[in-house]
Design a protein that fits this description.
Elements lengths: L18 H12 L9 H17 L2 E7 L4 E12 L4 E6 L2 E6 L3 E6 L4
Antiparallel strand pairs: 1-2, 1-5, 2-3, 3-4
């Protein structure tokens, strides 16, 4: 009798991987995380919050994907460039240009 069929049967010794699994496995080896995919509705909310911050000059918290971790930036959107697909956020200690593709989440900050 073969030992291969013990436990989980034929899947226990299977070495087949889906392409997504192989990519995730390689990224995990070097410590990188894959950027989470956003649903169309989530993208619309992100764009609306960026637009609201730009028009009303209200503070937002932008969560961006940085490769190794998600990073939060708090500031006010001062310009939006649709041709370069980025926006400028004014932070406490300067400013930063952020590509729309890097954005994971945008939350409006409560004004007190």
């Amino acid at each position: 009798m073969s030992i291969k069929l013990s436990g989980n049967g034929r899947w226990e010794n299977s070495r087949m991987m889906l392409p997504q699994q192989a990519i995730n496995h390689r990224l995990n080896k070097i410590g990188l995380k894959r950027k989470p995919e956003l649903h169309e509705d989530e993208l619309q909310i992100v764009m609306e919050n960026i637009s609201i911050s730009f028009k009303r000059k209200t503070e937002i918290c932008v969560t961006i994907y940085g490769g190794y971790e998600l990073q939060d930036l708090i500031g006010v959107v001062t310009s939006i460039n649709p041709y370069r697909q980025n926006f400028k956020i004014e932070l406490v200690d300067g400013f930063e240009f952020i590509d729309f593709a890097e954005v994971f989440k945008v939350d409006l900050r409560e004004e007190n």
